[in-house]
Amino acid sequence: MRKFLVLLLLTALGLTISCDSKQVFDSYKSVGKSWHKDSIVSFQIKDLDKLKPYNLFINIRNNNTYNYNNLFLITEMNFPNGKVITDTLEYEMAYPDGKFMGEGFGDVKENKLWYKEGVQFPEEGAYQINIQQAMRKNGSVNPIEKLEGITEVGFRIENVN
From CA 102, how far away is CA 75, in angstroms rounded? Predict the structure, then answer.
C-alpha cells in the first residue's frame, strides 16, 4: 500500500511539472510591505537559445490593500553588450466594478502580464531585466513613494509554440 501511495504521489508531481512545458524561466521577488518608488526588482537571465523566440511576462501578486485599478511600470532590458531597452507600461489590475483581475483564492491575486512577444536573445552572456513601479495619483506629478498592496514581482519566460 505504501509503495502505491508513493508511486501515486510521484505520478501526480510529474504531471504537475510537465503541464508547464512552456516555462523557461520563472522567478518571483518580494517587495516587502510596500513597493518603494526607488526600489528596482532585477532578474538575471542567461543560457537562452540564441535562435529561439520567447514570450516574456511580468507577474504581479497583489492583495486587497492595492487601491488602484491600474499599474504603471518602467522596465529595462539590459543586453550583455551594454544596449538598454526601456519601456513604460500600463496594466489594468481591476474590473470597472472594482473586483481585482488575476487568479487566486482569498485576497491575493496573481496577474500574468504580457511584456514582450517573440523576443530573441542573440548575444552571449547575461541579460538583466529591471522592473520599477511608476505610480502617481491622478493629477499629480509626484510619484507614490510607497505603493501598498503589491507583494511580489515576478518575471517569466516561455517558449513560443
Answer: 21
Other Cβ atoms closer than 10 A to 105: 6
CA 67 to chain centre: 19
Closest CA to 56 of 72, 42, 77: 77
- Domains, the chain, in order of start with CATH, read 23-159 (2.60.120)
* Contact call for residues 57 and 113 (beta carbons, < 8 A): yes
Look-up of cell digits 531597452: 85
127 contact partners, CB below 8 Å, separation of at least 6: 44, 45, 46, 48, 77, 78, 79, 80, 121
For residues 60 and 112, give the distance between their C-alpha atoms in angstroms, rounded to a whole number. 7
Are the CB atoms for 73 and 59 separated by under 8 Å? no
Query: What is the helix (H) or strand (E) element at residue 3, kind and residue range?
Result: helix 2-18
pLDDT, tens digit, for every residue of 67-114? 999 999 999 999 999 999 999 999 999 999 989 999 998 889 999 999
